[in-house]
Write a structure and sequence with these properties.
Structural class: mainly alpha
Strand order of the largest sheet: 1-4
Shape: elongated
Helix content: 40-55%
Strand content: 5-15%
Distance between the termini: 34 Å
Order of helices and strands: EHHHHEEEHHHHHHHHH
């Protein structure tokens, strides 16, 4: 990665991804490794959530610079042949490769599989055709930056390209004055050379008020009743119970929205849950609803999403979300809570691990 500074003391922020370092037995060519690297990069950004990390061919094109009509379809075909990708709603997500296909970090044993693969960062070229900084040449430049003064055979093996490609790419990089003339080492970038790569898009601040599930009429009413000295489970946290209640409700709402649920569907789902518990009839029913929030919803939701993803991958589901399935699984959870409550089996349930606490 370039380390020289500009006059203001900072490098310009460039659009980048992490190029995976292929192992000796890797069966993929350069284009397939580049596409797979982009898929893993997205997968890491989304914390391994397949449905959130899945991308279209156009997104792959924008993230790699590869041709969307010829190169990317061929690369995806090779990845599919080797069992490295899956599809959901015509979007692509990665599967775990064989361990020896990519270089693994020595200390990565406890990390998720997608975080154990070694990589080096690259920037995405701005105009490959005019500059000659095509994907292979660009990747070689950053590999040399990462591992200078290696043999040309080493660079060819790590990129999955031929020695001839490496030799030609070195000539191009020296013509662009990106490599030292006397050794395989990157030169400091200066002047117009920064323009060879795409700038990272700046996120604009919006003044639109964000929707919060906790501010809906239903949860305002429930929260007020629970706050009035009637919390059973949320009082166990050091933070104010009502703040914790609002925070977890908002997190659940955002999680559902991220999986394709509309605001109307989210509010309708929670109204349905409240009706199932008959929360307006007694404090006990209100506590059972609180118990569902505290212990059950996250498992219920993740279970529905897992089944939906499996069905989509098998080509038997193409909807925008799993609302119907979620309601059916929720109905089963409600019945279990009602039974446990009637049998006084709910006591002590609040001591379970709270998966949401570290995530909200």
């Amino acid at each position: 990665m370039p380390t020289d500074n500009l006059q203001n003391g900072e490098e310009p922020k460039k659009k980048r991804l992490f190029f995976l370092m292929a192992g000796k037995s890797c069966p993929l060519d350069f284009n397939s490794v580049l596409v797979y690297s982009f898929l893993i990069y997205r997968y890491k950004l989304k914390n391994g959530m397949q449905q959130d990390a899945a991308v279209t061919r156009q997104q792959i094109h924008l993230g790699t610079g590869l041709c969307a009509t010829r190169t990317i379809p061929t690369a995806l075909e090779q990845l599919e042949q080797h069992g490295l990708i899956g599809l959901v709603d015509n979007r692509v997500f990665p599967f775990q490769p064989k361990q020896d296909w990519f270089v693994q970090y020595r200390n990565g044993g406890l990390k998720p599989w997608f975080a154990r693969i070694a990589y080096f960062p690259i920037w995405i070229p701005a105009s490959a055709k005019s500059s000659g900084l095509v994907p292979r040449v660009n990747a070689l430049f950053f590999l040399i930056k990462h591992k200078p003064n290696q043999t040309q055979s080493y660079y060819a093996a790590k990129l999955g390209v031929s020695l001839t490609t490496v030799r030609t790419a070195i000539k191009t990089l020296r013509r662009l004055k990106l490599l030292s003339v006397s050794e395989l080492r990157g030169r400091d970038l200066a002047g117009d050379q920064w323009q060879l790569w795409q700038d990272k898009k700046k996120r604009t601040q919006t003044t639109v008020r964000r929707w919060r599930l906790s501010q809906s009429d239903l949860f305002q009413r429930i929260g007020a009743r629970l706050e009035n000295g009637k919390f059973l489970y949320f009082f166990q946290i050091e933070e104010e119970p009502r703040q914790t209640f609002d925070r977890i409700v908002d997190w659940f709402g955002n999680k559902m929205a991220a999986r394709g649920y509309s605001r109307t569907e989210i509010e309708s789902y929670w109204s349905d849950v409240a009706q199932r518990f008959l929360i307006d009839e007694s404090d006990a029913s209100l506590h059972k609803f609180e118990l569902f929030l505290w212990l059950n919803f996250l498992d219920v939701f993740n279970h529905a999403e897992k089944i939906t993803l499996q069905s989509a991958s098998a080509g038997i589901f193409s909807g925008t979300n799993s609302l119907g399935l979620l309601k059916r699984i929720t109905s089963e959870a409600v019945s279990q809570i009602n039974t446990a409550w009637d049998n006084h089996a709910h006591y002590g349930m609040g001591t379970c691990n709270h998966q949401w606490q570290a995530r909200t």
